[in-house]
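Structure (tokenized):
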């Protein structure tokens, strides 16, 4: 019985939130959504930059290890 009450309560809260966001606070909701785009773009760009630098470092590290490996095998 508690599961059904939770589902019904969740549906009521969901519909109330959608109603308020669309009909009552549309302007504020609109500004919030569009105001969050610049920080999201900044964070996504920062993550992409860090991933790119890390990838370049990994590639250089692998190339360096591949260069050292044949030298170690020929010495034995």
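Design, position by position:
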């Amino acid at each position: 019985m508690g599961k059904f009450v939770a589902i019904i309560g969740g549906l009521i809260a969901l519909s109330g939130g959608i109603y308020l966001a669309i009909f009552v606070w549309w302007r504020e909701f609109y500004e919030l959504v569009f105001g969050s785009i610049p920080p999201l773009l900044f964070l996504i760009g920062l993550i992409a930059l860090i991933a790119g630098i890390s990838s370049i470092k990994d590639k250089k590290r692998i190339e360096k290890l591949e260069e050292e490996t044949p030298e170690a095998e020929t010495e034995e």
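Reviewer-requested clarification: The first helix runs from residue 2 to 24. The CA atoms of residues 44 and 69 lie 37 Å apart.
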